[in-house]
Design brief:
The complex is a heterodimer of chains A (about 250) and B (about 290). Chain A is an alpha/beta fold and about 250 residues long. Chain A has eleven helices and ten strands. Chain A has a single domain, classed as Rossmann fold. In chain A, helix 3 packs parallel to helix 6. Chain B is globular. Classes of the chains: A alpha/beta (about 250), B mainly alpha (about 290). Bound molecules: adenosine-5'-triphosphate and magnesium ion.
């Protein structure tokens, strides 16, 4: 039995069918990856898992428990952390308070120690611990959102495009943290990404979505070498052609 | 001397407006709903205090605590039964619902306690302090001190307690609050409870100076103006807006033709909307859903 199982999920925005029957499994201890173009329905899948949206049909099973229809705070307390698309920090709380809120459902004495661990993952946050989150840069807010989800000590962490809008250096930094968290804390990860290269590099198993359906699934190793993936997500052939053309144009200008 | 005297009654009246405004703002910040029954909650609080202090003859402090507890419970139940089913409905429907709630509360109060005005027995009634000719009634003094204490208490609650910070979090970003496991719906109920208890305190404070009757909640409209003047969304703004309106009302009553006193709250509101539409403390546009 996988840690998280989605079976024939259908989710609607009013009359619009955003998820058209999806089944996927997230195995415990792994980094699973969900790829797809804009509007494919990746965010909707995560919202359906975390209870922000209720599926019209199908089942979401976490640790053997059917959780569809639960309120999102209840899902969180079951051990699913969610780093939503677009950071979504608490803007007028300090960095430290944001992290404390991440541990809202916990009652153990290790919270302070976990805050230190987040500061260890993201040292910039330590320097800004007392500042309001609204005054962090976009990348720092992303780190805070990840740190805040870690504070829940989740069994499963959902990450929605953590690389969005970050510099290449920051993207690889965040990728390192995801690998470290998966490794050190044995945390299961479901990673949604547009940055397929990064995702397939760190992921173990991957799914590819197109307009509300899963069209391909395999180990990340295999996905990386699939020609469709190379063309559409890694842009391997595409980039080559464009690069050459640009080079030619330059020559003719001189 | 006369000016100081007006200032005293203005400030104490303003404190009452401010407290009711605080109730408006708290519920609005947390749930984005405007509760037009806020003044009527104050009225209910005053009647419960009357019941506990005059009828059941509880010691005053016990009567106050019992009133606060009763109104907290009524606030929580109101949220649970009336407002929670309305989550996701248009704001207009919620507005109509709270206006209807006001009618119901006035009807209940009229049926249970009658329509003739009552006065609340307090241990401090009638006492005065004479400050070189300026008379400071104990009732007014208690209003000012009570309001200051309540504000300090609320400040500490929101600033330093886990629940208070979680309430801020839920108000700043509801979805993120859900995702970190904050029970947002329960928080809404607690906010209603707090807001109703604040109104109850306002009712107890104002009862010795203005008698209790089912219509006394209509000053909620002025308190609503105070909340907007303060920036609707700012807690200190609500108190300041209340003080401003309370004080101006007193001076308008003396220096302007009769009638101006009662409309001065709305005149201030209009002037404020013209020169500084975001209110004294602008927080509305910073709010993130
Ligand atoms: N609030 C909404 N109301 C109506 N339709 C929506 C809403 N949010 C998303 N959709 C639709 O649902 C579909 C899936 O959207 P979703 O946000 O899940 O895509 P995504 O894969 O996360 O895209 P992106 O990579 O751009 O974040 C899209 O066609 C979108 O138009
Ligand atoms: Mg998305």
């Amino acid at each position: 039995m996988a840690l998280l199982e989605l079976t024939n999920i259908e989710t609607y925005y009013g009359p619009i069918m955003a998820i058209r029957g999806i089944s996927l499994n997230v195995e415990a201890g792994r980094i699973s990856v969900l790829l797809g173009a804009n509007g494919a329905g990746k965010t909707t899948v995560l919202k359906t898992i975390s209870g922000a949206m209720e599926p019209q049909k199908g089942r979401v099973t976490f640790n053997g428990e059917s959780i569809q229809g639960y309120d999102p705070d209840r899902v969180a307390r079951l051990g699913i952390g969610h780093v939503p698309e677009g950071r979504e920090v608490f803007p007028f709380l300090s960095v430290e308070e944001n992290l404390q809120m991440g541990a809202f459902s916990r009652n153990d004495p290790d919270i302070a120690q976990d805050i230190e661990r987040v500061f260890d993952y993201f040292p910039v946050l330590k320097d800004k611990a007392r500042q309001q989150a609204a005054y962090l840069s976009g990348g720092q807010q992303q780190m805070l959102a990840i740190g805040r989800a870690l504070m829940l000590r989740p069994t499963l962490m959902l990450l929605d495009e953590p690389s969005l809008g970050l510099s290449p250096r920051l993207v690889s930094e965040i990728a390192d943290i995801i690998v470290r968290v998966n490794d050190e804390q044995r945390m299961t990860i479901l990673l949604v990404e547009q940055n397929a290269r990064m995702a397939l590099d760190i992921g173990h198993y991957g799914y590819v979505m197109e307009v509300g359906r899963i069209v391909m699934e395999d180990t990340c190793e295999k996905l990386k070498s699939a020609t469709d993936i190379q063309e559409f997500y890694l842009g391997i052939r595409d980039e080559g052609v464009r690069g050459r053309r640009r080079w030619k144009q330059r020559k003719t200008w001189r | 001397m006369e000016i100081l005297q007006l200032l005293i009654s203005g400030i104490s009246q303003g404190c009452v407006y401010g407290l009711i405004a605080l109730g408006f703002v708290l519920i609005y910040k947390a749930t984005e709903m405007v509760n037009f029954a806020q003044g009527d909650l104050m009225m209910m609080g005053a009647f419960f205090a009357y019941t506990y202090a005059n009828v059941l003859e509880f010691p005053f402090v016990i009567a106050v605590l019992a009133t606060i507890a009763t109104m907290a419970l009524i606030g929580v139940i109101t949220e649970r039964l009336l407002l929670r089913p309305m989550i996701g409905e248009p704001h207009f429907s919620v507005l109509m619902l709270t206006i209807g709630l006001g009618f119901i509360l006035r009807a209940i109060a009229g049926a249970s306690w009658g329509n003739e005005p009552r006065s609340l027995n307090t241990p401090y009634a009638g006492g005065v302090i004479d400050l070189n000719g300026v008379i400071l009634g104990y009732e007014n003094l208690v209003i000012m001190i009570g309001t200051a204490l309540l504000c300090a208490l609320l400040y500490c609650f929101f600033r330093f307690t886990r629940l208070g910070i979680a309430m801020q979090a839920a108000s700043q970003n509801q979805l993120a609050a859900f995702y970190v496991g904050i029970p947002v719906k329960r928080i809404y109920a607690i906010v209603w409870g707090i807001s109703a208890s604040i109104s109850a305190v306002a009712g107890i404070l104002v009862a010795p100076v203005s008698l209790i009757d089912p219509q006394m909640g209509f000053i909620g409209i002025k308190a609503f103006a105070a909340a907007i003047v303060g920036g609707f969304g700012s807690l200190p703004g609500a108190i300041l807006g209340g003080l401003l309106i309370g004080v101006v009302e007193q001076f308008a009553g003396l220096y302007l033709p009769t009638g101006f006193s009662d409309v001065s709250a709305y005149i201030i509101l209009l002037i404020m909307l013209l020169i500084r539409p975001q209110g004294i403390f602008a927080t509305m546009q910073q709010k993130k859903v």
